[in-house]
Amino acid sequence: MSMYLPIAEMATNPFVIIFFGALVGAMSGLFGVGGGFLMAPILFFLGIPPSIAVSTEATQICAASVSGSLAHFRRGNLDIKMGGLLVAGGLIGSTIGVFTFKWLITLGSVDLVIQLFYVVFLGGVGGLMFLESLQAMLRRRAGKKVNHKRRHGFMHGLPFRTKFPRSKLYISAILPVTVGFGVGFLSAIMGVGGGFIMVPAMIYLLGMPTLVVVGTSLFTIIFVTANNTLQHAWFNGTVDLVLAGLLLLGGVIGAQIGVRLSGRFNAEQLRILLALIVLAVCFKILTDLLIGGPAVQFSFGGGAGHA
Amino acid sequence: MRKTGWLRHHVLALVSAACVSLGGLAVAQGPDIAAVESEVSVGLFSGQTIVRVFGSTATPEVPIRLQLTGPDREVKFTRSVRRLGVKVAETISGSPTTIPSIRAELSSADIPLHQEGDELEQALIREGVVIIMPNAIKMEPTGLFFAEIPLPASAPVGDYKIEIFQEGALRDVAKIKLAEESFAIRQRGFVALVSRGAADYAFLYGLICVLVAVAAGWITERVFRNRR
Questions:
Q1: B contact test, residue of A55, A67, A74 with most B CBs within 10 A
Q2: Are B206 and A244 a contacting pair at CB < 8 A?
Q3: Looking at chain A, which residue has its C-alpha nearest residue B71?
């Protein structure tokens, strides 16, 4: 059976999309990450044009974040002031990202840029995550306690310092706005929520307590991905509602499986596994960039191809 | 009345997907053109589309060829070039900028249908944009012929043209066009709604996408909350 994707203008097997949506959804449930950085490359590998994959992913991540954040909000694990500043920066970043994306489409190099972004970020984050979890595991084996020191760098001395009662912080408002901006920009270009950048940034850069980090990060991602969805649909015409529906369905199924599986694994082993998956995806994109592929290729113009 | 033999073509574009209407049949002087209208529509669960063409010729001994061309689209041909170790797509200068989004070439005999060694053509054949089917037209001794052209499910919407040529009697003489037909692929139902909505009401469409996402996320959480 095949299903027609109206915006991608191609037929696809809906079960393949639902299957991978569920697989990534299950990993999200297991690892507590959005999974956009895995889903978008899978969609590239399935032949969905990268511009449509990235834009449509925003819709799925928005839904997943709404669903994942409600429990955190009810428990009050949300720093609304910090979230608001992150969202403010995020909306500016994501809007600039959408227009950069549009500009790259007209240049015809959007695919290459998306892939390069993926190689750099997946390689960097995957590598760091792998090293850190390995060290943590070794330290635990050696019986030492893992101690997280809060860094107090020059950036905490920036102007516009303000109090964040929920996070028990007194830092410059420029910091969360900048973090939000970067996350929003990456989110628009790469079709990710940006949690994999934002969560470490919130912990190590802003020094937020881990309790409010996940809720505040999801809060930010909801607004950033909603903005991405709206603007990609509005200005680039690259959001495919049918593809989004299939991804949502898969994601819902997968998240339930993931949550049920999550109790059965050791957290540190999970982190190493996730790091390895991230590095494998990075390696696959890198090899696609470096070797193989036919010499002469062609691409039809007209952006998403409105008939 | 007719210069070169009596030719009469009755070309019907029949499509398996749905909605087929057949037009009349016109007999004209010389190369004959039959007027046939047919519309193909693409729905949410459409698979491969098969276009069936029937016709007749008074000279079955002369091989014929058929060309199906889809709506024109802008295209960019690129060649992979290494820049700092990374493959970069570089535009091939002098390559066509507009080509039919899909093209099928069929023949009733072993006639070479494409130039060997043409890199651009090879790339198009590899990706299924050009479909080469020698010997795919079944010619009866009576002059009736029949062909099936499989179009990929991703065949773009728009106006399609089917042309039938007869091989020139002499090698140097260009092929003679015998008949021309057209049909259209249109989207229907939900697919048409989404694709038209996204194009004509982009802001509203984006807003709907956001609402769908938020609603889906909220409903999911409501449904599964108690089970976590």
A1: A67
A2: no
A3: A307
Looking at the structure of chain A, the number of domains it has is: 1
Judge: B86–A2 Cβ closer than 8 Å, yes or no.
no
Interface contacts (A, B; CB < 8 Å): 200
Is position A78 within any domain? yes
How far is it, in rounded angstroms, from Cα A43 to Cα A30?
21
Q: How far apart are the first and last CA of chain A?
A: 24
User: What is the edge-to-edge ordering of all strands in the sheet holding B12-15?
Assistant: B12-15, B49-56, B144-151, B138-139
Q: Is residue A299 part of a domain?
A: no
Give dist(CA B146, CA B188) in Å, integer: 28
pLDDT, tens only, A221-272: 999 999 999 999 999 899 999 999 999 999 888 888 877 776 777 777 777 8
Length of chain B measured in residues: 228
What pLDDT score does A220 carry? 92
pLDDT exceeds cutoff 50 at B3: no
| Domain ranges, residue A214 | 3-290
The tens digit of pLDDT for each residue in A185-226 reads 999 998 888 887 888 888 888 888 888 888 898 899 999 999
Contact across the interface for B208 and A4, Cβ inside 8 Å: no
Q: Which residues from B are below 8 Å from A232, CB to CB?
A: 206
Report the chain A residue with the minimal C-alpha distance to residue B188: A6
Q: Is B204 in a helix, a strand, or coil? A: helix
Q: Is the dihedral of CA B96, B99, B104, B109 positive or negative?
A: negative
Would you say residue A229 lies in a domain?
yes
Instruction: Report, as ranges of residue numbers, the positions in chain A whose pLDDT lies below 50.
Output: 303-307
